[in-house]
Design the sequence.
C-alpha cells in the first residue's frame, strides 16, 4: 500500500471508530456529504474537483489524497486534476492579495 493509501485508510479507520462512539453524528455527516457530493446540477466529478481545490486551500493532506482519488474514480483526467490545482493556487493567492489591498491598506492608513 502506498503512503497516500495508508493515510486515507487511517482516516477511514478513524471515521469508523468515531462512528462507533457517536453513530448519529457519523451517520448525519456521511448522509450530508454523500448528498452534497452526489451528481445534481453539477456532476460528481466536478464536485470532487471542487472538494480537491478546497482541500488544497485548507492544506488538508488526507482530504487532498481522498478527493484526488475520488475525482479520478469519477473520470477526472490528470490534466483536469492539475488544472484544479492551478485554479486553487490562483484563488488562494487572490485571497491573500484581496486582504492585502483591503485590510492591510486600512491598517496602514489608520496607523498612518
Sequence:
Amino acid at each position: 500500500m502506498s503512503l497516500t493509501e495508508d493515510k486515507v485508510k487511517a482516516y477511514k479507520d478513524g471515521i469508523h471508530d468515531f462512528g462507533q462512539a457517536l453513530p448519529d453524528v457519523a451517520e448525519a455527516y456521511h448522509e450530508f456529504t454523500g448528498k452534497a457530493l452526489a451528481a445534481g446540477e453539477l456532476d460528481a466529478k466536478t464536485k470532487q474537483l471542487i472538494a480537491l481545490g478546497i482541500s488544497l486551500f485548507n492544506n488538508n493532506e488526507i482530504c487532498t489524497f481522498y478527493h484526488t482519488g475520488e475525482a479520478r474514480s469519477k473520470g477526472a483526467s490528470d490534466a483536469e486534476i492539475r488544472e484544479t490545482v492551478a485554479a486553487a493556487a490562483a484563488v488562494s493567492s487572490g485571497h491573500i492579495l484581496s486582504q492585502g489591498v483591503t485590510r492591510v491598506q486600512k491598517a496602514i492608513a489608520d496607523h498612518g
